[in-house]
Amino acid sequence: MSTATIEQTDAHLDDGPPPDARDRFYGLLPELVAADPRVAVVLAEIGASYLDPEKVAPVRDRVINLGIREQLLISTAGGLALAGLRPIVHTFAPFLLERPYEQVKLDLGHQDVGAVLVSAGGSYGWPAGGETHFGQRDVALLDTLSGWTVHVPGHADEAEEMLRDALRRDDRIYIRLDGLSNAAPGPVDGRMSVLRRGSRGTVVAVGPMADRTLAAVDGLDVTVLYASTVRPFDAGTLRRTLGAPDVVLVEPYLRDTSTAEVSRALGGIRHRTLGLGVGPDELRRYGTREQHDAAHGIDVEGIRRSVIDFLHP
User: Fold this and answer.
1) What InterPro entries would the database entry show (predicted)?
2) Contact 107/89 with Cβ under 8 angstroms?
3) What is the C-alpha separation between 119 and 312, in angstroms, rounded?
4) How many other CB atoms sit within 10 Å of the CB of residue 263?
5) Using 50, 70 and 90 to split pLDDT, how confident is the model at 247?
6) What confidence tens digit (pLDDT) does each residue in 91-136 have?
7) Do 152 and 210 fall within a single domain?
């Protein structure tokens, strides 16, 4: 019999399909640009056709579509930031971070200017796009650079709040949008929240992994923490809530991306960590998102099997 208790009993109730964060993002953009003369949107074709032309018309001079030129996308954002604007930069994750990595490193980081990078597609949100459109390496890639805040919202409401807050700041922020969503939003104060309490270990569910993680550990005596901001990593909450020093990370991107963060957070404490997420091997079949999840072991059944094997060897 599990001794775990639910601390947020109404956090993930299903009242119908949750809103899509990317649709919310496109709907918000004209309003955000109109509300603040500092804000500019920079696109590389992706997303341009989803914007309402009538709503964009009054702020057309600050909605810039550069076409399929991703290096120029980031360089333009750097120039706008140097000129005192707050650029929102948007495309699929591999086009936003992998292809223009040098520009992200130099035109934003080296120049020490801010921008709000908003990706789409998650790790494989469009399976038919294949490897060119898969974005599971994004957070790990940003970990090689300094000064980035990384948000992984699990609900459209979280994404909107994060975006509005990001526009009030001047630093470098990455908001990772995914077609997946939890049934209800969680807090977005940068700290992990406690979804369940248990004594046999801790499971950290990141962004849209929360609902499936709760389903996966049903009946197991574990604490579940929810993280919608992963950089900076909330070491304090992890340490304060730690029971048994066994930690499972459930991340919607490259497996073990945050394993080193857990090790730093638990420095001086003997512990074990299991990282779950998208594996490094390329799956050379399109399939469906659900099939990719199952192949990487981050569907409900795969998460449950891994947690049980790890905590009960």
Assistant:
1) PDH/Transketolase, THDP-binding, Transketo_C/PFOR_II, Transketolase-like_Pyr-bd
2) no
3) 38
4) 13
5) very high
6) 999 999 999 999 999 999 999 999 999 999 999 999 999 999 999 9
7) no
Q: What is the CATH number of the domain that holds 232?
A: 3.40.50.920
Q: Last residue of a domain, which of 106, 141, 176? A: 176
Please say which residue of 149, 176, 203 terminates a domain: 176
| Domain of residue 202, residue span | 5-15+183-311
Q: Are residues 237 and 122 in the same domain?
A: no
Give the C-alpha separation, 69 to 312, whole Å.
50
Q: Cα 177–194–186 angle (5° rounding)?
A: 35
Number of domains the chain contains: 2
Structure tokens at 144: 């090689």
Which token pair is 286?
A: 């399109």
Range 192-198 average pLDDT: 97
Q: Which H or E run includes 274?
A: strand 272-278
